[in-house]
Specification:
Structural class: alpha+beta
Shape: elongated
Strand content: 15-25%
Radius of gyration: 23 Å
């Protein structure tokens, strides 16, 4: 990934549009990252990954609610250490 200042990005915008077809470009302003330019393909991949993550989080939340409803009372007394110990013992 190449990095350019905002002034360089303004002066070389056409060239940067060609560059992002090969790799993302970081634009800095006052020494800090201000923006990224990515290709349409990279943006589609990022959007797809975000959608999948949101779906996975929703599925996990649903599973957690289901597990909480169906868990035995003794399960609420387990600590993280208890769970880790049981997992290690089951291996």
């Amino acid at each position: 990934m190449i990095t350019v200042t905002s002034v360089e990005a303004q002066n070389r915008f056409g060239q940067l549009l060609d560059t992002v077809q090969r790799e993302p470009v970081t634009i800095t302003r006052h020494g800090r990252t201000a923006a990224f330019i990515v290709s349409p393909q990279d943006m589609a991949e990022l959007t797809n990954a975000r959608s999948k993550r949101s779906s996975a989080v929703a599925d996990f939340d649903a599973w957690s609610r289901h597990a909480a409803i169906n868990a035995l009372p003794a399960a609420s007394k387990l600590t993280d250490e208890d769970v880790l110990r049981m997992v290690k013992e089951s291996r």
